[in-house]
């Protein structure tokens, strides 16, 4: 058994990746008393800071291609966690498209779950994961969830959400997400609503941890 398990949860935007990760972590941690053994990271924290750009340039930036993510920093952090070191994770402000001035300290735990849209895209990067999960949700459902989230939490207009979806979000999904879903060890349909699949995934992760 590796000293630390890294579980990857990939899938399209608004597919429920974070919900799946949170439910798995809650199920495992709640059965382990007062000592949590699962922590969660998000690839969203590692979007590149656009502070140097104008607001107009930030608004038209393509967040749905691999170059938008600081993969090098993310991989360094994953390696440091494996070595038993705490890390200072970045935090991203999606209202300003910049990193917050201060990140959050994350201590190593026996199990780390990383969720992200494009984390299966690079063959070398996905080799750092001990188990890969793909959350598979249809395009219409993902768009409606994204529309609700971005208008409620990020101050976006419905028109801007739809324009971004058509220009970069769905094309990026077709190029960088959908083609590599076969790299997953298991697939979860319906995202965070599929409690049976989430319980099965939790059992699989616990078995890996205990073996």
Q: Would you mind describing this structure in some detail?
A:
The structure is a single chain. With 211 residues, the chain is α/β, with parallel strands linked by helices. The chain has one domain (5-210): 3-Layer(aba) Sandwich (Rossmann fold). It contains 7 helices and 9 strands. The strands form 3 sheets. It has a 5-stranded parallel beta sheet with strand order 2-7-1-8-9, covered by helices on one side. The protein has a two-stranded antiparallel sheet with strand order 3-6. The radius of gyration is 17 Å and the shape is globular. The model has no long low-confidence stretch (mean pLDDT 93).
Tell me how many strands there are: 9
Task: Provide a count of the helices.
Answer: 7
Instruction: Name the CATH class.
Output: Alpha Beta
What is the CATH topology? Answer: Rossmann fold
Termini separation? 6 Å
Shape, per Cα inertia axes: globular
Strand order of the largest sheet: 2-7-1-8-9
Domain tally: 1
Assembly of the depicted chains: single chain
**What is the fourth-level CATH superfamily?**
P-loop containing nucleotide triphosphate hydrolases
Strand content is 15-25%
Proportion of helical residues:
40-55%
Q: TL;DR?
A:
The chain has 211 residues and is of the alpha/beta class. The chain has helices at residues 17-30, 55-59, 71-82, 123-126, 139-153, 158-177, 195-210, and strands at residues 5-11, 38-42, 87-89, 92-93, 98-99, 104-106, 111-116, 131-136, 186-189.
């Amino acid at each position: 058994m590796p000293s630390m398990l890294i579980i990857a949860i990939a899938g399209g935007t608004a597919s429920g990746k974070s919900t799946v990760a949170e439910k798995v972590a809650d199920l495992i941690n709640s059965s382990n008393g007062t000592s949590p053994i699962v922590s969660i990271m998000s690839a969203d924290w590692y979007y590149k800071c656009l502070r140097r750009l104008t607001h107009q340039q930030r608004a038209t930036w393509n967040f749905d291609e691999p170059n938008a993510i600081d993969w090098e920093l993310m991989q360094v952090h994953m390696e440091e966690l494996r070595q038993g070191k705490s890390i200072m994770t970045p935090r991203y402000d999606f209202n300003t498209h910049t990193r917050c001035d201060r990140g959050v300290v994350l201590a190593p735990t026996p199990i780390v779950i990383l969720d992200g849209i494009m984390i299966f895209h690079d063959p070398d990067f996905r080799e750092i994961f001990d188990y890969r999960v793909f959350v598979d949700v249809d395009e219409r459902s993902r768009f409606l969830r994204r529309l609700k989230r971005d208008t409620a939490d990020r101050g976006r207009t419905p028109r801007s959400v739809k324009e971004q979806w058509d220009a970069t979000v769905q094309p990026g999904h077709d190029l960088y997400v959908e083609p590599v879903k076969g790299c997953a060890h298991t697939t979860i349909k319906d995202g965070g609503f599929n409690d049976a699949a989430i319980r099965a995934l939790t059992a699989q992760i616990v078995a890996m941890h205990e073996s």
